[in-house]
């Protein structure tokens, strides 16, 4: 079993443990903040089992059903996961606001503090482990898992802070605020953390819609390609790129001069290999397709070259580097 599968399996069963622990402590303490933590963990457990399957699917080669492979399953899963977490956050927010309007919540502080301490340590430890593995294997699935554990850890910090404040306030003139501490801090934590699943949803939907990568990534890849092409005597390239899951697709047209001649296809393959080699460090999972043509309009089948190639709305980069 590889690193990605091991950490995803560990994450799934760790979430199940937190879900069971949260349910038991909710029944003991009557804290809806703990119940929220348990629900969050249970959802993550179910999604973790699905993630294990998707992690194996995305490695499959293309077939008669998916001609471009299975990379899109990764952002599709992350979109669903992010939306579910947004719904959980919305539920927690509505529940806590309702509790505030109803006079707060009474809870047993001692057991609640034990629960908070255990989940804080576990969540941040697992977040760190996921982050390390995500960097090593370049897995968006593991990276999202790291965000989920970080979010869970921050939620547990909020829960623990609520209980500490309530414990300190007991027997003082601040005791009337004790019932409100739990729901108020849950509201604060939800508002602070909801950006995590929202960001996941936006990023994943962007990949499903095949939106181009970040401008700095585009610039780096485009400069590498144009420099390699220029060294081989080609002065014009048209590049399109998109990142889907862990795979980075690059589709490039190289406009060759009218006097360009090759005696064998193998020579053209050699040129293509040299350009591909110049791009190999741009992304760990780079899929490159290079087309050579004399027709400057071929890269733009929808109606010719854009009127403003430098515009952000341009469908591709179309630039002429200086000849070396």
Summed up:
This protein is an alpha+beta fold.
Number of helices: 9
Give the N-terminus to C-terminus distance in angstroms: 48 Å
Percentage beta strand: 5-15%
Using the 3D structure, state the CATH architecture of the largest domain: Up-down Bundle
Number of strands: 4
State the fourth-level CATH superfamily of the largest domain. Cation efflux protein transmembrane domain
Using the coordinates above, name the CATH class of the largest domain.
Answer: Mainly Alpha
Return the string of H and E elements: HHHHHHHHEEHEE
The 3D shape can be described as elongated
Order of neighbouring strands in the sheet with most strands: 3-2-1-4
Largest sheet: 4 strands, mixed
Structural class determined from secondary elements: alpha+beta
What is the CATH third-level topology name of the largest domain? Alpha-lytic protease prodomain-like
- What is the residue-mean pLDDT, rounded to a whole number? 79
Descriptive notes:
This protein has 324 residues and is an alpha+beta fold. The protein has 2 domains: 206 residues, Cation efflux protein transmembrane domain (Alpha-lytic protease prodomain-like); 105 residues, Cation efflux protein, cytoplasmic domain (Alpha-Beta Plaits, 2-Layer Sandwich). Helices cover 63% and strands 9% of the residues. The chain is built from 9 helices and 4 strands, in the order ααααααααββαββ. The protein has a 4-stranded mixed sheet with strand order 3-2-1-4. A hairpin with a 2-residue loop joins strand 1 and strand 2. Helix 1 runs antiparallel to helix 4, helix 3 runs antiparallel to helix 6 and helix 3 runs antiparallel to helix 7. It starts with a helix and ends in a 5-residue tail after the last strand.
